[in-house]
Amino acid sequence: MSNSFISSITPPTAGEIACFFIFRERHILLDRDQIPQLHMVEEIGLTAVRQQYLGHRNATHYYAAEVAADTIPPAGMTFHKLRGTLTQLPEFQFWMAGRAVQVLEWDKNHQFCGRCGAIMKDVGYERAKKCPDCGLFNYPRISPAMIVQVTKDGANGREILLARSHRHPPNLFSVLAGFVEPGETLEECVAREIREEVGFSVKNIRYFGSQPWPFPNSLMVAFTAEHDKGEIELNTDEMAAADWFTADNFPIIPPLPTISRQLIDDFVENE
Ligand SMILES: [Zn+2]
Question: How many angstroms does the Cα of residue 120 sit away from the middle of ligand 1?
Fold first, then answer.
């Protein structure tokens, strides 16, 4: 996400033209492959069932809006699966769309207090809801997950661990990833996931970078690590395959700008 984006819940007072991320469930409305530029969703004949102001970057304002599941797109416009727009939209707009859909889903899924069932109220000064009866707060939730580049010295040079889970398309291999458990540090998560999925230990765990991943609400925290002890012992409940690869012998790998690809490219560059 660009540093120049200013997150805010307070829209501009004048009805300025803005980028509207309009979702029908998890499908985003595009106007000939572009994010619609509008004053309000009603001007293209749509009705928003919920809307959230996201903030601005320079003079451009951004809104998230949800329309009903049976909404027919306006002429010339189409709803697209968000994931499919990853390599189609400009990168900043894709990450903004991911922010938009997560804010909308949070708003939709937290209309009632999870503790007492009362109708939640927006607190008004930040993106949060509070129960007027029992005082429970609710903020947009993200689920941290670690993702890791594991390397070692092999017979033919430096090697990287690439694996395929059962939910990946055939032949697509990537680095390992997994959700952080309550009470666990990120580094503990890295070591645990590798132990659970491929059965060996790692050392020299170092931070690499992070990336929001809106499927559905992850924050991917990326690390590099080196193989320490043990051979690959595949957990076949979770993983379909895992192996060591040299940079000249790769299977199909994820596209940029995913952080998994950034980790793999980093290995290739340091090879
Ligand atoms: Zn409550």
Answer: 8
Q: Looking at the whole model, is its pTM more than 0.85?
A: yes
Compute the C-alpha angle 90/68/124, nearest 5°. Answer: 75
Numbered ranges of CATH 3.90.79.10 in the chain: 143-270
Taking the domain 5-106, which CATH number applies? 3.90.79
What residues sit around ligand 1, an ion, with C-beta below 5 angstroms? 113, 115-116, 118, 131, 133-134, 136
143-270 maps to which CATH number?
3.90.79.10
pLDDT (tens digit per residue) in 1-21: 446 999 999 999 888 899 999
Sign of CA dihedral 249, 225, 264, 193: positive
What is the average pLDDT across 212-223? Answer: 96
